[in-house]
Every structure is written in structure tokens, then in C-alpha cells.
């Protein structure tokens, strides 16, 4: 996943753009980028593989001048892309995943369109989106045509002389939210993936964009350019794992959902006696706090994250880098662990290898009496096609369990998805043995949906059930 942020102002906007974009740093670790428009476009892109956005852009932003800008933390490609089109020059940042990117690029190449940002033979998806848009009769027509052409998802910000166009993905897999500084006389508007970027930059939420909705923000305010559609397929994983606790999507706060998830997990655990409740930092903490409040057992920190310098162990592209971060970032406290029966709330189990080696093993080594793991979502069965990669299907812990139980990979895994089936129970027992935990109980889809609080049909639940609504 990536995070995008845009701002327009009557004053220089570079500092706000820098601070707002930085609040998306948990969403990606490949590239950071910023573009501002004053007298001319100014654009900076850096790799953020080895060091944080803050350190790479701190000097840059002071040299950037302009009253409108867009920024990105990208998990994939270099952005923003600058293009001189028949609508004039523009810069663009995107958030999403285009499954048919190579086919669409081949179609454009056949029409004589060229690509400049090619890496290892693959086109840059943001450049592809920019070129699809530039095939339209207008910017909005181009966005509509791009929406119709892509398989996957794409939310974007487009910066030109008119202001910042904000377009939320056609089915709303990723969020986009417009904010306004209460003192509107300054004409200060922003648009963001994460609303956590708003309070400290003194913005208030003005509008959660609807799926497919396009607005233009500039010094005059916000103007609608395309109405939103009714079908929403917002990513449920945003609340469970990917999103920042201080953010809200569709008006629903992430931390509050995580607490509700934890409470529900605790209600199904009346038969388990534990001494302390803990959460795997960072996203497991909200779930654990909910569990502790409901079970009336103390929330404690048997494993403390060494915060300076260690990001999420999931986002770096190489397994080696992920493992190093996972090994080093959690430090056990023997005085809290020894002799205790511990519940560990976790957002989800993807491969399970890091959880086993760098969390559970540390608890046993420090003398835990029992370790009970409680993921806040059901077993992951399908890699994401829309916004957040969960790597290949065979890496998923649930799929490894099924392969081991069946002796082969299955096409139809429905009996392993239904928590009432014997096969589901065997799969969970297999994963529990593999993780070496005392007990393992996953959240159910129904309870996860209840915790989020949106109607089921408005959520993307593809990771868990393999069904998508592409209407
Ligand atoms: S497949 Fe999973 S991660 Fe991807 S958008 Fe759907 S719920 Fe989110």
C-alpha cells in the first residue's frame, strides 16, 4: 500500500506537505516523493529503503516553494510523475494496485505512446495511470477512462495550475479524505489517505470522498468534479492492520475498531485463564487493550518495541531486511514474562514465521508458562489484488497448513474457510502446533465485520474468502 497527501494554500505549502506526507511513513518503504507548484513545478523523489522520509526530505522541503503540492510514500514505484499533456503540465501520485498494468501498457505502446520510467522491463504504474488519463478529453474524462480500464484499484492526486484533483478509487478500496483548516479565509485545504495527518497540521475532516468521486481543491475551496458511486469495497485490513490508530476511514476510527475486535476475542475466551494480556506492537496493541478491558486482566508489555529506527517488519521488500528488523525490534522483559500465562493479540498471521521466531520464541525463552495467540482477523487465504500485497499464496500460513493436511494445494478451500467445519479446526490446530503456542483462536469474519461497523457488502473481504465485488 502507499499513502498520498495533498495541500493547497494561499501561502507557501512545503512545510505542511512535508509534515502531512511524513504521517504516511508506516504505509511504504520504497520511495518518498513531493511535488509543489509555485512559479513552476518542483519535484523530489528519494529511495526510503534505508532511511526514513523525514531524514531524506528535511533539507529538500526548505528549498521547495509553491502554494500547492502533493506527496507520496510509495511501496512500489518512484513518484510523483511529471507529464506534459494536452491539458498542460501536471504531477500525479497514486495509491493502489493495477493488476493488468502490463496489458494496458502494451495497448498504449501499440498506439505509439512511450514510457520513460521503466524498471526491469515493467512500467511504472503511476506513469501508466498518467498516460491513461492523458488519453481522455479532459482530466476528469481521462480519470473515468482510466477507472474503466484498470483491474485493481487506484486513488490519485493530480497537481496542476487549477489546484489538486483528488480522485478516490472507483470501488473505494483505498480511502481519500478532504480536510480544511477551520480558518477558511486562508484557503487552506488538504487531502489525505490517513486522517491522522490532519490534527497536528490543524486540518479538520471536511469530506470522506465516495468511491469514484473526484473533487478539485484550490484557494477558492472544494469543487465537485465527479459524483461518487454507491458501491464501496473499502479494504477491511485498513482497520485491522495497515491503518494508523489515529486515522478514520468512512468516519470510523481505527483504534476504536481494534478495541472492539479485542473485546470480541475476549468474549469467546471465557474458558481460558490468563495472567496478562499483551499485543504485538504496533497494530496488535489496540486489539490487546480491548481484550484486556473486556477480560479484566491487566494489559502489560512483555515485549517492548525499540521504536527509534525500526519500522514495520512487513514493508521492506527483501525477506532478509524484514527478518533483521523483526529480530531486533522487540525486546523481552523477563520480569513480566516469567511464570505467566500470556495472551498475545496480533493483527493477523501472514506467514507466521516472524511471529514464531521473534515473538513467541522470545516469550518461551524468557519463561512464559502459557502463550495464547489471538489474531484479530480470520486466517488469510488469498493474496491481496487491490492495494496491499500479502505476497504469494503458498507463503500464507493457512495455505501451508492446508498443503500439509491434504498433501497438495487445493483450488477450492471453502471447507477451510468455514469455522464450523472440521477441516477449519484441523487447519488451526496445525498452525498452532507450527507456531508452538498453547492455544490459537482466530477472529471470525462476522465478528470482524461487526467490530468495523460497516455493512458487510461495503467491505473488501477478499483476503479471507476470495470473493470480490467488481460491480
Ligand atoms: S484483498 Fe485484503 S488487503 Fe486487499 S483490499 Fe481486500 S481486504 Fe484489503
Strand-helix topology:
Blueprint: E1 3-8, H1 14-22, E2 31-37, E3 41-47, H2 53-63, E4 68-74, E5 81-85, E6 88-98, H3 101-110, H4 125-133, H5 139-149, E7 152-160, E8 163-167, E9 177-180, E10 189-192, E11 204-208, E12 214-218, E13 221-226, E14 234-235, H6 237-242, E15 248-249, E16 252-253, H7 254-267, E17 276-279, H8 283-295, E18 303-305, H9 319-329, E19 330-332, H10 334-337, E20 341-346, H11 353-365, E21 370-375, H12 397-406, H13 414-417, H14 422-435, E22 439-440, H15 445-452, E23 459-460, H16 462-465
Parallel strand pairs: 14-23, 17-20, 20-21, 21-22
Antiparallel strand pairs: 1-4, 1-10, 2-3, 2-4, 5-6, 6-7, 7-8, 8-12, 9-10, 9-11, 12-13, 15-16, 18-19
Helix pairs in contact: 1-2, 3-4, 7-8, 7-15, 12-14
The protein binds iron/sulfur cluster (SF4).
